[in-house]
Amino acid sequence: MNNKVIETNHLSKIYVMGGEEIKAVDDVDLVITRGEFISIMGPSGSGKTTLLNLIGCIDRPTSGTILFEGQDISKLKESQLDQLRLRKAGFVFQNFNLIPVLTALENVMLPMEMAGVARKEQIKRATELLAWVGLPKRIHHKPRELSAGENQRVGIARALANNPTILFADEPTGNLDSRIAQEIALLFKRVNSDYGTSIIIVTHNPGIAEIATRYLKMMDGHFV
């Protein structure tokens, strides 16, 4: 089995703004192996989120290659990328991105429904995941009835719904106070240790950077 989940070679992303080229990601080489927990820190505008979107198959690079479990994703159609994201990747967002009209249980079931999992199995796994993240009594609550920290726990459970190979998280503690942020940081560590999921987190939170197995710093589109 290939131990590399993600491998990039000379990865670049250039935006043209006002006739000027901006290198958001500049010639980045990166390897993420199975079970690795990586944090990326750096100032705003350093390219962290752009890099995450590229390796998470949300955006396409200007040049360079991205291999996802050995597969060159530039050769995949949009429909194939959709399936790769759905089945192999989990995403956790700063603003949670939960659907307001759905309960916690329904939000976690949604990726499984999209993947064609039987409804009985959806309910069983979503219930188990919500208990695992510490919300066994909140499964029928909607996002507006939950605290920010609870919503992020739901977001993590949803990201794990289809048992992804890798979890991508963009400033997952950005909207949380310091105590709750530390609880969420430790929850990511549990995800990594209990499930063996590879994790890559863009963060300004030193608490997450400290518990990651590898810490990288970005500046001007590349690692320093």
User: Which spans have pLDDT < 50 for at least 5 consecutive residues?
Assistant: none
Looking at CATH, which topology would you report? Answer: Rossmann fold
Question: pLDDT average, as an integer?
Answer: 95
Roughly how much helix do the residues carry, as a percent range?
25-40%
Distance between the termini: 31 Å
Work out the strand percent.
25-35%
Main sheet, how many strands, which sense, barrel? 6 strands, mixed
Radius of gyration: 17 Å
Q: Report the strand count.
A: 10
Structure description:
It is a single chain. The chain has 224 residues and is of the alpha/beta class. Helix content is 36%, strand content 29%. It has helices at 48-55, 78-88, 104-114, 119-132, 148-159, 178-195, 206-211, and strands spanning 4-17, 20-33, 37-41, 63-68, 71-72, 89-93, 166-170, 198-202, 214-219, 222-223. Strands 6-7-8-3-9-10 form a 6-stranded mixed beta sheet. The longest helix has 18 residues, at 178-195. The model has no long low-confidence stretch (mean pLDDT 95).
Fold topology:
Layout: E1 4-17, E2 20-33, E3 37-41, H1 48-55, E4 63-68, E5 71-72, H2 78-88, E6 89-93, H3 104-114, H4 119-132, H5 148-159, E7 166-170, H6 178-195, E8 198-202, H7 206-211, E9 214-219, E10 222-223
